[in-house]
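User: Can you predict the 3D structure for this chain?
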Amino acid sequence: MNTKNLTDALAEVRDLIIKESKENLIAVKKGGGALEKSIKGTPVTSESDTLTFQILMEDYATFVDKGVSGTKQKYDTPYSYKDKMPPPSSLDKWIVRKGIAPRDEQGRFMTRKTLQFLIARSIFTKGIKPSLFYTEPYHKYLKNISKRLQKSYRIDVKDFTEFIIKKNNGKN
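Assistant: Here is the predicted structure, written as structure tokens:
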């Protein structure tokens, strides 16, 4: 049976989740950067009578979405820093991209290594506030998907039935 309408409906939902996730990420993080660029969907495929697709993104997206509790500030999240700080060097590109260049008490620019350490320590103690950039659109569209899929499936069944009737009428 041709499932074009059902496949199109799933692709539309996938695209809406991706679009809104990127918009949320840009709004929350004031520019999505590498994470925003990494959000992509796979084509809807049929495997063993099941239609599937995936939404792919950087591995750390889960921590940005769900948040991470720090050692002093806690969030409702399954993730937390306990005894290991995020690696300061992982913040280097972000610091450059954001143009962060603070000065010390004497008015001198801080070295990037110092800045990386201070930001990593802040993340370690304060954590990362949950952004729900992906969770909110996912639940929003998942909640309303059944009606959309029922309608699409009905159209596919109707088209299939009409095809079978035409095929059988042609044999008489």
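DSSP finds seven helices and four strands in the chain. The first strand starts at residue 40 and ends at 41.
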